[in-house]
Design goal:
Structural class: alpha/beta
Largest sheet: 5 strands, mixed
Radius of gyration: 34 Å
Number of helices: 17
Strand order of the largest sheet: 2-3-1-4-5
Number of strands: 5
Strand content: 5-15%
């Protein structure tokens, strides 16, 4: 027998005896959250049992089919002469770094028991396949298999899916308040406008309502408000100080207008714009509104501070610093307004500016020193 033939046979024997680990990846941990099965799951029978439990809990979840496909791949490899094992690994519901670290750790634990020299990845989509580089750091990936579910393409199936979404929109409050509530308000307003003959005016109101609804949903304002208005002492404090702060801000506008009412009332119609844009008028307006405006902002920040303090949150340190910055800015802005209205030297801004900067730096140093001590104490207590 020639040396070349011997090497070829030797290479084929090594391929046949490769130790491959078939890994089914469930990155969002459906098998744990839905079926209550802890991973890693190793072995054919254990994987089949886990897939059956997941299929019973959620027959529409594709991960159960992925596990069955992984077992089928494992059986095919065994029939072809490979030394193989099958396993299921999972991340966390929120995915991210913590979940990927969990997957890498589980693969390492499996490799310690079954010393594989290659991995076959089985997944149901690109999301699960995104962890392939993580697994490659532990074990070389020799093959990737994606499981694509066959679904009915009939008209009945399409109607069933459409009906499910319509039912969610109609009966699920999470969706109905936006998809039905907003159009319902617009239709009611449109009907009243048609009866009263105010179509043009109401159209502007309807567009404003629709735009406001889009903004609220786009920036999660409704969720932020629900978080602020939780029925807790901290939630009541936040709501009270927020409303009080808004009232102070609105009062600041009224106070500013009152400060310049005499100049505006005595101005001639053709000189009104000139009087409004005069720096003396602007200075009086700012002087009148500044105290109430600062009280309003301070009230809102104070509510956030009290809320954090009641919850024992470290965030209270940041809230204190915000209030200190707000107080330090007041004399600077007041002096700047004086420079504009009384033609004083700009150099008069330097003392309050330096004083405010010193107060902020000293306060920030003390507060963050306390933050590090408090954070260190919490770590030690844990």
């Amino acid at each position: 027998m020639s040396t070349k033939e011997t090497n070829l046979r030797k290479g084929n024997t090594e391929t046949k005896t490769s130790r491959l680990l078939v890994i089914c990846v469930d990155r969002d941990d459906d098998i744990g959250s839905k079926a209550g099965v802890n991973t890693p799951i190793v072995g054919r029978n254990a994987c089949l049992e886990a897939a059956q439990r997941l299929a019973l809990e959620d027959p529409e979840d594709a991960d159960s089919n992925s596990i069955f496909a992984a077992v089928k791949t494992f059986e095919d490899l065994i029939s072809k002469g490979y030394q193989a094992e099958v396993a299921v690994v999972s991340g966390t519901e929120n995915k991210g770094v913590q979940g990927d670290e969990k997957i890498a750790s589980q693969v390492r634990n499996i490799v310690e028991v079954f010393s594989a020299n290659g991995a076959v990845i089985v997944s149901d989509g690109e999301d699960d396949e995104s962890v392939i580089p993580i697994i490659q750091n532990v074990l070389p990936v020799v093959s990737v298999k994606r499981v694509v579910m066959r679904v009915s393409r009939s008209v009945e199936y399409s109607y069933a899916v459409l009906g499910r979404y319509l039912k969610a929109i109609a009966f699920d409050s999470k969706y109905s308040k936006f998809f039905l509530g907003v159009p319902g308000i617009l239709l009611v307003i449109g009907g009243i406008a048609t009866v009263l003959g105010l179509t043009k005016e109401i159209f502007a109101v309807m567009v404003s309502i629709l735009g406001g609804a889009f903004l609220i949903r786009a920036f999660d304002i409704d969720r932020a408000w629900s978080h602020w208005t939780k029925p807790t002492p901290a939630g009541f404090i936040r709501v009270f100080t927020l409303v009080a702060g808004i009232l102070f801000v609105l009062a600041s506008i009224t106070a500013g207008v009152s400060s310049v009412s005499s100049q505006i009332s005595t101005a001639k119609p053709d000189e009104l714009l000139k009087v409004v844009m005069d720096k003396q008028t602007i200075g009086l307006f700012v002087s009148g509104m500044l105290p109430f405006l600062w009280m309003g902002i301070g009230c809102i920040l104070g509510g956030s501070l009290l809320s954090s303090w009641f919850r024992g949150s470290i965030r209270s340190i940041t809230d204190i610093l915000r209030i200190i910055v707000l107080l330090s800015l007041y004399p600077i802005i007041a002096q700047f307004n004086t420079v504009i209205t009384r033609d004083e030297s700009p150099f008069t801004l330097i003392p309050p500016l330096l004083l405010g900067l010193a107060v902020i730096l000293i306060s920030a140093s003390l507060l963050f020193h306390k933050y590090r001590r408090k954070k260190g104490g919490e770590v030690l207590s844990e």
